[in-house]
């Protein structure tokens, strides 16, 4: 349906204002902000301008409150300008764009205050997140939790060069497998990347690819002026010329202006009567206006294209645009970091009837009545429900999670056992857990959980092996009530799905407790997505297993060395590496609660687990022990007053640490054994305590690790040992000034038995004994472990 003229007029006026405000925001940050440190910020004016019309069409007219948008990183100023017009963004924050506590360079859910749906910045991730958010919405709906809330559309505004990011393709395939709905991707087809002009004919590749994955494709190439001109005599020839013009040439002519277009058209089309007249009828300015009237800059074309969609199939819009449209560097291949000069800005300001000093006035220079514009904004469907960020009650977590114990177990096995116990019950916790795994469901011990809770799909699909009565350990039935989402082997997808699931409370108003399982080394494959999930404060649990060189026979390729450091360094992620299953059960209970804590208190959880079967301690889980486990450490053998050496270990090397402690104890007066369940929480506690003390707020505050190490004499040595990078625990010596020998793995591994590899990398009992010996005075330790 053609858009009504009155609405079109309002939208066009607001879109001009958005272009102005977004450009002014950047200009202000670069040229006018007081106390500027002299750094130019660049990088936004041209890239933002591309999307001013499309985003105005969406936010001021097409979007509904339940729709969620991932905005291309460099369109952040456009987003903020729109929110400013809505009254959701302050002038102060715009004036302070990219400054301390100002509006963010790239839209940020957590740092911005104007209702960003998805944080973007690392190109590609936000795009895929819309797809997974749509799957999550389907999950919530299939489980009967949508109530009367309407389905939202998940929309991404995508740069054309952004489409190079591989994670987008991975997501497309996954979306196809799951019958994706309600997803729109709008490609800003300005045919420019950061460095240069993109390849010819890219749109055809996009079109066939999207269609191949079951998407509708809508190409919005020509604006209304163009369409009208094509209908004039000679218009066909003009259209042919536009279609044949190479991207770089079109961009260059947009930069050069109307006279250049005229020269080129005349040279290339020659004197062909009607088309020549068509061109001659227009002044240089009119000709430029015509040639830059691509679909993505034409409000009517965009609104009509969006509103024509009357189904829930996924749609890719390819909207032709000009990078930097309307600005002096439009189309220039170097314009990504281009900034308008003060003189250019002055000229543009005057041309728009904006008086000096009135640059931030919302409706300055527009001919429409301010009250009418105000009313139009107020009545925008997008604003109908007020606050769009939802919340959900906390799901109760039992104080303790149980599992069926055995004397010998591995933490990976324990993880499966704990989940199996949860799955057997009918708690709210059990109902809200949703698991996902990139083709390693069974090999990470999720099998028992999946057998009980089933796989998720919108349509029922029975396990054929079961219906054919062929014996199989696993029940692979799909249903809308299933609680496991099986993914293909793409760890990026796994973490983006975690991000989408882990924001369900805020997006769908229904809390989910997502758990991902994967092999520990492949965390690195999905690391940027994991980082972004944490950055936008999504809440989930990652069980990564097997880890380290302990998976020994599987070889060097699957061994993870850096992941303990990643776990420590990743903001928003509390990482744990328990040695025993009773510790793991405590950590998982803590984790489910931690995932639901508000604000800076909570976060996501990373469990680095192992397939190594080790002897389990038979002990009572006291509150003290529980507290030690969640805070990161406890004494497995408490040191006496004259302690000479402490062995501090993490994870699967527990048997070596225990054994070495026994040997050292024969020759040293007093040896302590410190079990470290979370280097991350210990370190964070220590940093936090120092900060508190510096702030001098309240009484002197000691962190958990400071308290644990306090009784040690000054000359006591500490040997740390972990199947991971030694720096993970190496810092322990700085806590109270003890000498440390940090053992760990620093090189890609060999294949072999655990014994071979621990010896090779120097994390076996004898290496621990050697290290303790070198740190302490006295005769050599009498006994060593015999080679087997
Ligand atoms: C993962 C990642 N790599 C690199 C960048 C740096 N970068 C920002 S935008 C951009 C490309 C811009 O091209 P396009 O997506 O077409 O957007 P346009 O500026 O044309 O609107 C690049 C390489 C980034 N933000 N994220
Ligand atoms: Mg581009």
What does this structure look like?
The chain is α/β, with parallel strands linked by helices and 788 residues long. It is built from 34 helices and 20 strands. The strands form five sheets. A six-stranded parallel β-sheet has the order 10-7-11-12-14-13, sandwiched between helices. A five-stranded parallel β-sheet has the order 1-2-3-5-4, with helices on both faces. Helix 21 links the parallel strand 8 (455-456) and strand 9. Helix 1 (5-32) packs across helix 3 and helix 1 (5-32) crosses helix 4 (76-86). The longest helix has 28 residues, at 5-32. The mean pLDDT is 94. Residues 159-161, 190, 192-193 line the site of magnesium ion.
The total of beta strands comes to: 20
Coarse morphology: elongated
Q: Helix proportion of residues, in percent?
A: 40-55%
Largest sheet: 6 strands, parallel
| Estimated share of beta-strand residues | 5-15%
Give short descriptive properties of this protein.
788 residues; 42% helix; binds magnesium ion; 6-stranded parallel β-sheet; 5-stranded parallel β-sheet; elongated; alpha/beta; 34 helices; binds thiamine diphosphate
């Amino acid at each position: 349906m053609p858009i009504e003229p009155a609405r079109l007029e309002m939208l066009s006026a607001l879109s001009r204002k958005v272009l102005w405000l977004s450009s002014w925001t950047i200009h202000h940050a670069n040229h006018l902000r007081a106390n500027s440190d002299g750094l130019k910020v660049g990088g936004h004016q041209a890239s933002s301008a591309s999307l001013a019309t499309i985003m105005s069409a969406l936010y001021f007219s097409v979007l509904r409150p339940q729709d969620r948008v991932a905005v291309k990183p460099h369109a952040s100023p456009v987003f903020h300008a729109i929110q400013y017009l809505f009254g959701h963004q302050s002038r102060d924050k715009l004036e302070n764009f990219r400054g301390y506590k100002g509006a963010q360079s790239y839209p940020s859910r957590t740092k911005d205050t104007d209702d960003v749906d998805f944080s973007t910045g690392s190109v590609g991730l936000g795009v895929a997140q819309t797809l997974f958010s749509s799957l999550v919405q389907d999950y919530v709906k299939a489980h009967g939790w949508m109530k009367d809330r309407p389905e939202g559309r998940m929309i991404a505004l995508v740069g054309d060069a952004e489409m190079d990011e591989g994670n987008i393709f991975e997501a497309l395939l996954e979306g196809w497998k799951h019958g994706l709905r309600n997803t729109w991707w709008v490609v800003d087809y300005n045919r420019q990347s950061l460095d240069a002009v993109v390849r010819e004919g890219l749109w055809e590749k996009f079109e066939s690819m999207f269609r191949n994955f079951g998407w509708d494709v809508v190409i919005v190439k020509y604006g209304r002026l163009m369409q009208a001109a094509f209908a004039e005599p000679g218009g066909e020839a003009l259209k042919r010329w536009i279609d044949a013009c190479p991207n770089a040439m079109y961009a260059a002519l947009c930069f050069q202006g109307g006279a250049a277009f005229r020269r080129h058209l005349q040279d290339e089309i020659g004197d062909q009567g009607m088309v020549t007249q068509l061109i001659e009828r227009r002044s240089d300015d009119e000709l430029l206006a015509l040639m830059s009237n691509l679909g993505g800059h034409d409000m009517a074309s965009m609104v009509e294209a969006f509103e024509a969609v009357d189904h829930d199939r996924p749609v890719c819009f390819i909207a032709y645009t000009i990078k930097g449209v309307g600005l002096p560097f439009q189309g220039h291949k170097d314009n990504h970091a281009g900034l308008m000069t003060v003189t250019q800005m002055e000229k543009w300001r005057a041309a728009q009837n904006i008086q000096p000093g009135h640059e931030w006035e919302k409706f300055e220079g527009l001919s429409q009545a301010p009250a009418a514009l105000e009313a139009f904004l107020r009545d925008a469907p997008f604003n109908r429900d007020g606050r769009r960020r939802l919340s959900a009650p906390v799901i109760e977590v039992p104080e303790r999670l149980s599992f069926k114990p055995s004397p010998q177990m591995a933490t990976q096995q324990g993880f499966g056992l704990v989940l199996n116990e949860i799955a057997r019950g009918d708690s709210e916790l059990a109902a809200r857990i949703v698991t996902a795994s990139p083709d390693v469901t069974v090999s990470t011990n999720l099998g028992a959980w999946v057998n009980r809770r089933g796989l998720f799909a919108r349509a029922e699909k029975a396990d054929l092996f079961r219906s054919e009565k062929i014996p199989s350990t696993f029940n692979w039935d799909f249903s809308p009530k299933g609680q496991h989402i099986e993914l293909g082997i793409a760890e990026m997808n796994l973490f983006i799905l975690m991000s989408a699931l882990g924001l369900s409370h805020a997006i769908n108003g229904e809390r989910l407790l997502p758990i991902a399982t994967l092999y520990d080394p492949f965390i690195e494959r999905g690391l940027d997505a994991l980082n972004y999930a944490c950055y936008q404060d999504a809440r989930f649990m990652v069980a990564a297993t097997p880890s380290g060189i302990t998976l020994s026979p599987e070889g060097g390729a699957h061994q993870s060395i850096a992941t303990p450091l990643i776990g420590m360094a990743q903001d928003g992620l509390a990482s744990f590496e328990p040695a025993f299953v009773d510790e793991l059960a405590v950590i998982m209970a803590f984790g489910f609660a931690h995932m639901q804590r508000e604000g800076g208190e909570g976060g996501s959880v990373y469990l680095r687990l192992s397939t190594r079967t080790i002897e389990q301690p038979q002990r009572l889980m006291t509150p003290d022990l529980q507290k030690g486990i969640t805070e990161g450490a406890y004494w497995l053998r408490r040191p006496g007053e004259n302690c000479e050496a402490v062995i501090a270990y993490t994870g699967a090397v527990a048997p070596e640490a225990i054994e070495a402690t026994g040997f050292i104890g024969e020759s040293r007066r007093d040896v302590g054994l410190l079990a470290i369940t979370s280097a991350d929480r210990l370190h964070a506690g220590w940093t936090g305590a120092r900060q508190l003390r510096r702030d001098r707020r309240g009484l002197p505050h000691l962190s958990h690790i400071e308290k644990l190490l306090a009784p040690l004499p000054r000359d006591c040595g500490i040997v740390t040992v972990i199947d991971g990078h030694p720096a993970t625990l190496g810092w322990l010596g700085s806590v109270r000034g003890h000498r440390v020998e940090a053992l760990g793995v620093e090189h890609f591994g060999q294949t072999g038995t655990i014994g071979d590899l621990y010896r090779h990398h120097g994390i076996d009992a004898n290496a621990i004994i050697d290290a303790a010996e070198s740190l302490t005075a006295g005769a050599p330790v009498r006994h060593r472990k015999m080679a087997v």
